[in-house]
Design brief:
The complex is a heterodimer. Chain A is mainly alpha-helical. Helix content of chain A is 76%, strand content 1%. Chain A has 16 helices and two strands. By secondary structure, chain B is mainly α. Chain B has a domain of 113 residues. Chain B has six helices and two strands. In chain B, helix 1 crosses helix 2 and helix 2 runs antiparallel to helix 4. Chain B is elongated. The two termini of chain B are 25 Å apart. The chains are: A mainly alpha, B mainly alpha. Chains A and B meet through helix 16 of A and helix 1 of B.
């Protein structure tokens, strides 16, 4: 920040000659190390510069007022002269002049571009180096407002997430994850409670799964001998026999067999009765009554 | 609709089988009686015990008495002997009621004394033997264990062939 305009010692003394604090120790008493600022003199300088500028502007205005008709007349004359020349000069000459003009214009544009390219970068660098852009932006830009203007959905839609994921080293990420901690924090009962297992089961095509299972391969992997060796078949057999009421089964089966035999005997004897009756009727030439 | 005369009455074959089973039962009962009497005589006088040797007349008479008693009790109470139970027949009065004690005893005596009269059931249109005719009884098919209630209904004397459960 520039310091207050300072007066040199002599002019300060002159300017302050009429001060009521003359000869006292105070802010206006000059020492070697003191730089005195004089507001009155500063105002004087501003006033003088304004006067100069005002005078200049008046001169320019007067000159413009005087020159405008002249310049207008001159431009008119030049235009008419050019038109006259164009009308009376041959087309070849005009086209040659146009071509020459085009070349000059192109060269001038090139030179201007080079000049801009040569001047602008160092100027911009110097300007950027001088300015603290970060603070400038933080001070003057409403980032929240800009963020509100952003269409994040559109940004995400344009992002190639597959490419992003492809660049992620998932193995390294997983190495850094402590799964045990995560699992300890999970309430699996609550999660399972929210799952509709019936719907999940209904969506499973068990037939298709079973068709893909090779029973031979499964059985081939079972060590039947080892399984049998671990089974206490005698104990199992004893338990089964204890559970079964064998005498009751024998009684029921015997009763069923005997009742079946009795039923058979009864049927056979009835049929024999019928046969004998028919035979006797035939021998005795007796007409049998019709069965109901 | 009334049933034909012999419809629902047991024929000769069934009744012969019933008679055979009952004969075996009577023989077994008689043997048991003999053994019982023998055992009683042994315990009564073991020192003078000797196997009883009844005369043929005594044996025959004993058989007849046992048979008559057996048949009387069976027909008067349930209408069926053991053989009748096995073959699914029942002895009833012609009115489909149970025999009284007198009629049961008369039928038993005639049956024991004139067993050949059973053969008449093959000739009789109503499948009745001599003792049936003399005493006024019939032998019907009855596989139910309702003490004759089923067979005592005249309309239900014919055995329903669709239901064989006794």
């Amino acid at each position: 920040m520039a310091a207050e305009p300072a007066c040199d010692r002599r002019s300060a003394r002159r300017a302050c000659a009429g001060s009521p604090h003359r000869g006292e120790a105070g802010p206006w008493r000059l020492t070697k190390a003191t730089r005195v600022t004089c507001p009155q003199r500063r105002d004087d300088r501003a006033h003088v510069s304004d006067v100069v500028i005002g005078a200049g502007a008046a001169v320019v205005g007067l000159a413009a007022g005087l020159a405008t008709p002249v310049l207008s007349r001159a431009a008119d004359l030049v235009g008419r002269g050019v038109g006259l020349v164009i009308r009376h000069v041959s087309d070849t000459t005009v086209s040659g002049l146009a071509e020459r003009g085009a070349q000059v214009r192109a060269e001038a544009e090139r030179l201007a571009a080079e000049l801009v390219g040569w001047l602008v970068p160092p100027v911009v660098d110097a300007a950027v180096a001088e300015l603290n852009l970060t603070q400038l932006v933080a001070r003057h830009v409403d980032i929240d407002y800009l963020a509100a203007l952003l269409d994040v959905d559109a940004v995400v839609a344009r992002a190639d997430l597959d490419a992003v994921i492809a660049r992620v080293d998932i193995a390294a990420v997983l190495d850094r994850v402590d799964l045990n901690t995560i699992i300890d924090r999970l309430d699996l009962d609550a999660i399972v409670g929210t799952v509709d297992l019936d719907a999940v089961a209904a969506r499973i095509d068990l037939d298709a799964i079973v068709k893909r299972v090779d029973p031979d391969a499964v059985i081939a992997r079972v060590d039947v001998d080892a399984t049998l060796a671990r089974l206490d078949l005698a104990a199992i057999a004893r338990q089964v026999i204890d559970e079964i009421d064998l005498p009751e089964i024998l009684r029921q089966s015997t009763g069923a067999v005997s009742s079946e035999a009795v039923r058979e005997i009864r049927d056979e004897s009835m049929l024999a009765d019928e046969a004998l009756a028919r035979f006797v009727d035939r021998v005795l030439r007796r007409r049998r009554a019709a069965s109901p | 609709m009334s049933a034909p005369p012999g419809e629902g009455n047991a024929g000769l074959v069934t009744r012969l089988l019933v008679a055979a089973v009952d004969a075996i039962a009577v023989v077994i009962a008689t043997v048991g009686l003999y053994l019982g009497v023998t055992g009683v005589s042994f315990f009564w006088s073991p020192l003078r015990f000797q196997w009883p040797q009844p005369s043929p007349w005594t044996s025959t008479l004993t058989l007849v008495v046992v048979a008559a008693a057996y048949l009387t009790v069976a027909w008067a109470t349930t209408g069926r002997t053991y053989g009748a139970t096995l073959l699914g027949v029942r002895v009833l009065a012609r009115s489909r009621s149970r025999l009284g004690w007198v009629r049961a005893m008369l039928r038993a005596i005639i049956c024991v004394l004139v067993p050949i009269g059973l053969l008449w059931s093959a000739i009789s249109p109503a499948r009745r033997s001599w003792h049936d005719i003399l005493v006024g009884t019939v032998v019907v098919y009855d596989r139910y264990r309702d003490r004759g209630q089923h067979a005592m209904t005249p309309e239900r004397t014919t055995f329903p062939t669709g239901d064989r459960s006794p």
